[in-house]
């Protein structure tokens, strides 16, 4: 203890006692502008607080001698090693560089070597997708190997894991020795997927490329590690081991993952000490990070930063999917020249923190998982319905009104961006540009929906005083009893108009209510209600929904006649409900006439406070709309908050089914006059589901949940797999709807 005391005393004396030459050195360092205080303090967090108050003094007295860097670009050790004429121990590296080396253009750091991106072919996304294991494990581990000699350390940790996992390895190829390493990896892990990748975007692009292929979308959690050496840190090897050992916990990994997965709002897990939450770490990455985040409808804030340092972590599936939504390709990443800041890879690290915390999610460290208290499981819906649009096939009317060959896909694929980073067009994924006259498509959709927790499709029924339109898919279904498609009908009783909103514009197909329409409607719907696939959520009554009940003249009498007509034709009692529309109809309507009501976001959930563009007041968020845009853009996150506010919920009928929407953007239909809910991604949808299940389901009619919708592609209200996010929205729904 005495020796320790005297050693500390000597250090303090060395630090504080004036030394003219060293003080001159400190002055030159200060005046040069080459010393980054934030970097020095951040990388060397264990420095005594007194020393931290005078970082330049600490550097010239102690730091340089032990190899610490004054900024991300200058390495004292590398400066002397790369310039052999400076081998004399008396040479002070940074002082020499300030006085002579900068003018002479001397090398100041090691530059990563290895093949360039254009020297190695990057695996095609579709080819990668074909490598997916037929039956995936619960977890996946991705290891990017640039420093081949470090593989043995990785393999020992992987072998020791107590979890089922699929291994994905990307290797930067350095000739034949890399082929030997690949063979060694496959011998140790025969089921691993091993792909050659250039050191392009460091370890970030190889991981993003796997994510973009969809390879990693089927796992509950994914771990990313890489062969980090961090030449700017003397403790680089120790740091790397701490990063990896904090995540790959040997025989305890399963227990940690269980805690991580049990917390629904924990999205990213890092090793202790790797969660940085200070804006000083923006460096030169703010602008690039902001451009990345806007691709998934987020915005960076110069005064707020929270991210995982070291680029090693466990991620949950909704965060992996949001990352996929960035749609990054090799051309988005700069050529590798050993940069230590300001690249897309560095900005991505910071942007990932925003993605991880979107919608109230959080980053957790290993020790926090150890201390985590049990999380109470939120309620789950007893029945889940999704609105279903049968518009995806040709009909003579659409050919006449919109041109030959028109289907919903024409509007969807022709959509144009309306503001910076507007992801348009939204294109289909797994099912492609389907034609619903092929009944097998309905079966494929229903199979996926059932897997993800959806019990029924609420299918739009277009009936105009007996005239039908878009009836082909559901009529063909009746002739195919082998296709399992659980459904019930929603009478879309509004006029079809030229501008698609059902409220204004040239009338294309008028919705009337002629005398006796109730009996005709009952008879025309009874044929579907007799089908065994027609849903009876309460176990007894077939269900029927009216889209705009307030438009029905003398609604009380019409509802009574409609119920009587169903009884007369042998159907019996029908469970009758309606949509809570955002515009009042022409007639008074008693809510108690119906058995239930359906929330259909965004109806009734947009208030002036949520407007980002086109509303009553300007906002700080500049989306840079295109010339001529006259629509509305509002905050999706604000809509989520409104859905649980007493100001909204207290006005709902007592028998309301809680509703959610994955996203909303009807500019594919309405062009520059459309309405957009800005801010939707798998993370924010997950937050909405969490809020709804926790707070709204207990009071929801029969503990049901309604989703708007399965396939409203031209309104971007779709659960179906898309090219941008894959099946992420469905997986979020499954997370909250399945026990």
Describe the structure.
- This protein starts with a helix and ends with a helix.
- It is elongated, with a radius of gyration of 31 Å.
- The protein is an alpha/beta fold and 739 residues long.
- The model has no long low-confidence stretch (mean pLDDT 90).
- The strands form six sheets. Strands 10-11-13-16-17-18-21-24 form an eight-stranded parallel beta barrel. A seven-stranded mixed β-sheet has the order 3-2-1-4-8-5-9, sandwiched between helices.
- Helix 22 packs across helix 23.
- The protein is 35% helix and 14% strand.
Keywords, separated by commas or semicolons:
alpha/beta; 28 helices
Quick description:
With about 750 residues, this protein is of the alpha/beta class.
Topology:
Blueprint: H1 2-16, H2 20-32, H3 37-43, H4 49-52, H5 55-63, H6 76-82, H7 93-104, H8 125-129, E1 139-145, H9 151-159, E2 165-171, H10 176-188, E3 193-196, H11 204-213, E4 221-226, H12 236-245, H13 253-262, E5 266-270, E6 275-276, H14 286-293, E7 307-308, E8 313-316, H15 317-325, H16 344-357, E9 362-365, H17 366-371, E10 383-388, H18 396-402, H19 408-413, H20 439-451, E11 456-464, E12 467-469, H21 472-478, E13 487-491, E14 496-497, E15 507-509, H22 517-529, E16 543-546, H23 555-568, E17 575-579, E18 596-598, E19 611-613, E20 632-635, H24 636-642, H25 646-649, E21 656-660, E22 664-665, H26 667-670, E23 675-678, H27 682-696, E24 704-707, E25 711-712, E26 717-718, H28 728-737
Parallel strand pairs: 1-2, 1-4, 2-3, 5-9, 10-11, 10-24, 11-13, 13-16, 16-17, 17-18, 18-21, 20-23, 21-24
Antiparallel strand pairs: 4-8, 5-8, 6-7, 11-12, 14-15, 19-20, 22-23, 25-26
Helix pairs in contact: 2-5, 11-15, 14-16, 15-28, 22-23, 24-27, 27-28
């Amino acid at each position: 203890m005495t020796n320790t005391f005297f050693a500390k005393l000597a250090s303090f004396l060395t630090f504080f006692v004036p030394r003219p030459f060293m003080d001159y050195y400190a002055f030159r360092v200060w005046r040069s502008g080459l010393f980054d205080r934030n970097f020095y303090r951040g990388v060397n967090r264990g420095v005594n607080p007194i020393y931290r108050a005078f970082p330049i003094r600490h550097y010239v007295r102690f730091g340089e001698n032990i190899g610490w860097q004054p900024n991300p670009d200058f390495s004292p050790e590398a400066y002397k090693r790369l310039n052999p004429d400076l081998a004399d121990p008396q040479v002070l590296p940074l002082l020499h560089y300030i006085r002579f080396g900068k003018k002479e253009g001397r090398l100041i750091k090691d530059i990563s070597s290895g093949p360039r991106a254009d020297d190695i072919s990057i695996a095609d996304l579709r080819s990668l997708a074909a490598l997916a294991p037929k039956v995936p494990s619960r977890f996946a581990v991705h290891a990017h190997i640039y420093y081949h000699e470090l593989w043995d350390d990785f393999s020992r940790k992987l072998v020791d894991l107590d979890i089922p996992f699929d291994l994905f390895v990307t290797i930067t190829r350095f000739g034949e020795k890399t082929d030997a390493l690949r063979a060694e990896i496959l011998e140790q892990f025969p089921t691993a997927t091993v792909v050659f990748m250039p050191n392009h975007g460091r370890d970030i692009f190889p991981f993003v490329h796997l994510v973009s292929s969809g390879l990693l979308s089927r796992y509950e959690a994914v771990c990313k590690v890489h062969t980090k050496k961090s030449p700017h840190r003397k403790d680089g090897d120790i740091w790397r081991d701490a990063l990896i050992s904090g995540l790959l916990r040997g025989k305890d990994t399963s227990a940690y993952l269980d805690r991580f997965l049990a917390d629904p709002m924990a999205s990213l897990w890092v090793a202790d000490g790797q969660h940085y939450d200070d804006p000083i770490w923006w460096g030169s990455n703010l602008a690039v990070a902001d451009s990345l985040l806007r691709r998934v409808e987020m915005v960076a804030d110069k005064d707020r930063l929270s991210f995982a340092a070291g680029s090693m972590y466990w991620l949950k599936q909704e965060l992996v999917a949001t990352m996929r939504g960035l749609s990054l390709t090799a051309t988005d990443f700069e050529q590798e020249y050993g940069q230590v800041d300001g690249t897309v890879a560095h900005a991505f690290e910071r942007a990932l923190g925003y993605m991880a915390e979107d919608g109230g999610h959080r980053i957790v460290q290993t020790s926090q998982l150890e201390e985590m208290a049990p999380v109470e499981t939120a309620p789950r819906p007893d029945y889940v319905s999704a609105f279903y649009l049968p518009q995806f096939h040709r009909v003579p009317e659409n050919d006449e009104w919109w041109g030959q060959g028109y289907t919903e896909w024409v509007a969807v694929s022709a959509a144009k961006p309306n503001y910076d980073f507007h992801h348009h067009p939204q294109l289909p994924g797994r099912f492609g540009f389907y034609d619903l006259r092929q009944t097998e498509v309905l079966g494929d959709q229903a199979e996926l929906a059932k897997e993800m927790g959806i019990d029924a499709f609420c299918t739009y029924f277009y009936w105009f005083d007996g005239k039908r339109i878009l009836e082909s898919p559901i009529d063909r279904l009746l002739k195919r009893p082998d296709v399992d498609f659980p459904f019930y009908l929603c009478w879309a009783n509004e006029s079809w108009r030229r501008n698609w909103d059902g409220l204004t514009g040239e009338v294309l197909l008028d919705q009337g209510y002629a005398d006796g329409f109730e009996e005709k409607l009952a008879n025309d719907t009874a044929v579907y209600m007799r089908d065994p696939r027609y849903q009876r959520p309460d176990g007894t009554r077939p269900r029927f929904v009216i889209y705009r009940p307030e438009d029905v003249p003398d609604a009380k009498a019409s509802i009574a006649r409609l119920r009587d007509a169903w009884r007369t034709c042998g159907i019996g009692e029908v469970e009758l409900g309606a949509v809570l529309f955002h515009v009042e109809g022409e007639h008074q309507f008693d809510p108690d006439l119906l058995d239930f009501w359906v929330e259909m976001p965004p109806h009734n959930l947009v208030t002036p406070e949520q407007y980002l563009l086109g509303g009553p007041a300007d906002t700080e968020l500049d989306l840079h709309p295109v010339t001529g845009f006259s629509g509305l853009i509002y905050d999706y996150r604000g809509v989520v908050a409104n859905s649980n506010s007493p100001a909204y919920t207290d006005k709902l009928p007592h028998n309301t089914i809680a509703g959610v929407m994955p996203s909303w953007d009807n500019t594919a239909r309405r062009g520059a006059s459309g309405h957009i809910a800005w801010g939707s991604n798998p993370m924010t949808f997950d937050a909405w589901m969490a809020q709804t299940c926790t707070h709204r389901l207990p009071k929801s009619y029969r503990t049901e949940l309604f989703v708007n919708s399965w396939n409203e592609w031209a309104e971007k209200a779709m659960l179906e797999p898309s090219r941008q996010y894959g099946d992420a929205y469905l997986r979020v729904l499954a997370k909250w709807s399945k026990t």
